[in-house]
Amino acid sequence: MATTNLTTVEELQKTIDNNDMVLIDFWADWCGPCKMFGPTYEKISEKYPDIVFAKCDTENAQSLAAAFEIQSIPTLAVFREKILLFKQPGVLSEAMLDELVSKIEDIDMEDVRAAIEKEQAEGGK
């Protein structure tokens, strides 16, 4: 299994702080779509060994799910260089998930940080 389980906000923060790219699948055992997405998530995780693919069982880690304001599952969140770049509920196909990972790998993070700084500066006026 190439995925890791997250159960606390502290584990999440450590994982994000210590890895360049982190994907988190928020799911629950009773969720049919989550069970459909799980094998796809696992398969793609095998393709990208340098990326952390984490899973958060929303039933067993309710404080973590609450911190992310998870209202629908499955929800996928993607961090790169400690910045949340993607958060969306729903099932992705294997091709869509693979394309998402590739696109996030290709993002120029200097541009992202510059955009965030600009937004923060404009918000402070």
From TrEMBL:
Alphabetized UniProt keyword annotations: Disulfide bond, Redox-active center
Span of the signal peptide:
none
Specify whether Translocase is a keyword of the entry. no
InterPro entries reported for this sequence: Thioredoxin-like_sf, Thioredoxin_CS, Thioredoxin_domain
Pfam families cross-referenced by the UniProt entry:
Thioredoxin
Q: Which domain of life is it from?
A: Bacteria
Q: Which residues form the Thioredoxin domain?
A: 1-121
Q: Keyword check for Disulfide bond, yes or no.
A: yes
Q: Which residues form a coiled coil?
A: none
Name it: Thioredoxin family protein
Q: Which organism is it from?
A: Desulfonema magnum
